[in-house]
Amino acid sequence: MGNILIHFNDNSYWDDHLSEESTDSGSTANDLDFLRMDWHKFLKARRSGGGFKLLESYMNDNPGDHDFPETRVLWIQGAQCTGCSESLLDASNPALLKAFEILNIDLKRHEAFLAHQGLFVDGEPANTSELNSEILLDEISEQGNYILMVEGAIANGPDGSGKYFMSGNRSSKEMFKKAAQNADLIIAVGTCAAYGGINTADSDIVNILDYRGVAFTKKDPSKGMLNLLGIDKPVINIPGCPPHPDWIIYTLSAIISGNVKIPDDLPEVLDKFGRPKVFFPPDHNVHKDCPRKEFFDNKEFDTCVGGEKCLLKMGCQAFLAHADCALRKWNDGHSYCVQAGSPCIACVEPDFPDNTRPLYSSKKNRKRKEADQ
Ligand code: SF4
Ligand code: SF4
Q1: Which amino acid residue places its CA nearest to atom 7 of ligand 2?
Q2: How far is the CA of 356 from the centre of ligand 2 (A)?
Q3: Which residue's CA lies nearest to atom 6 of ligand 1?
Q4: Which of these, 352, 288, 341, 345, lies nearest to 311 by C-alpha position?
Q5: Does the pLDDT of residue 108 top 70, yes or no?
Q6: Cβ(213)–Cβ(196) below 8 Å
Q7: What architecture is the 71-269 domain classified under in CATH?
Q8: Would the CB of 296 count as within 6 Å of ligand 1?
Q9: Interface pTM (ipTM) of the complex?
Q10: Rg of the chain's alpha carbons, rounded to an integer?
Q11: Cα–Cα dist 269/292, whole Å
């Protein structure tokens, strides 16, 4: 076991930032037990070895046994924009289909990816699971033995009926209940599924709509849909609006490889809001590794888009965001929100967006403006 070496390349940026790791010359596959890893070490391994190699290291742990047993995944969508699914399609290291192949994932149902699964043919309800995603959902959930991935918040309103969000003939609450009951594990993908997200933003109608996250609504687990339904299942939250594809794929990999046992290991690898600590470090925030930090330290701020200075006065809330975005970066490691000129809106936090509203606007600046008028 663990005889594959992942060699770290020389990289002055990483050595400068991760000085405590700079003497490492390599890491074994056992060390790459990444949901348990120190997040600095994980990022360094991922950056130098590549995510593809990182995933393959699990397969090479067992010579002669190069295939994981098939894992069935059932994906359902509540109130969402499909941005989380689109983000997953952007996975690049490895690409999504390659990751599914390596991990031997059978995606049984996904209404956006598997678009042939409609509900009606020639105006009549389709009556086979190949054509009708409601029948498919029933079949798979009755068989059990799957990971349920939930994208989007689940409506409880009006009056507990869940009918403010219908898909075909069913409410998303009904679909979620059906799918959750026999799931081995539930992964809430994106801030809407994890905590309610923009669906639970404070408004005149928020209590009537009564959207819920899977295991939390905002920071409150007692208001999660699972608690409301009286269903007890292990849950992993992968927040983000949208989440980084690495966060989703590497979490699946850790589970499928057996390196994180469900449910026994979850208290060790998750934070108090159900997030993998390796991607959402409790002791770290996006501000700490910002490429604009020198400007922050020198109190030099941009006040309109297109500059290179600190974005604090344009509403940057990176202090609140516990995530590795500034080091991992998005789009195959090229850039991320703040680097691209957009203030961080702390989209990974349970109370997003109310904790950071008004977005892209410094509250202090706004108050000053109001005082001046
Ligand atoms: S732009 Fe945001 S993350 Fe970067 S230094 Fe300024 S406040 Fe911090
Ligand atoms: S940088 Fe901030 S807004 Fe952008 S993805 Fe990360 S947490 Fe969300």
Answers
A1: 346
A2: 12
A3: 310
A4: 341
A5: yes
A6: yes
A7: 3-Layer(aba) Sandwich (3.40)
A8: yes
A9: 0.95
A10: 22
A11: 31
Taking the centre of ligand 1 as the mean of its atom positions, its distance from the CA of residue 256, in whole angstroms, is 37
pLDDT 10s digits, 133-172: 888 899 999 999 999 999 999 999 999 999 999 987 899 9
Pair of tokens at residue 159? 């009056």
Residue having the nearest C-alpha atom to atom 8 of ligand 1: 287
Q: Helix 172-181 to helix 133-143 angle, to the nearest 10 degrees?
A: 30
| Residues 301-335: tens digit of each pLDDT | 999 989 999 999 999 999 999 999 999 999 989 99
Tell me the catalytic residues: 81, 84, 192, 241, 287, 290, 310, 316, 325, 337, 344, 347
Q: Pairing state of beta strands 166-167 and 170-171? A: antiparallel
311 in ligand 2 pocket by Cβ < 6 Å?
no
Per-domain residue ranges for the chain? Answer: 5-60, 71-269, 284-373
Closest Cα to residue 276, out of 322, 221, 231, 242? 322
Identify the CATH homologous superfamily for domain 284-373: Cytochrome-c3 hydrogenase, C-terminal domain (4.10.480.10)
State the residue for tokens 């809330």.
317
Atom of ligand 1 nearest to the CA of 309: 1
What is the Cα–Cα distance from 231 to 181, expressed in whole angstroms? Answer: 7
304 labeled binding residue: no
Which atom of ligand 1 is found nearest the CA of 295?
5
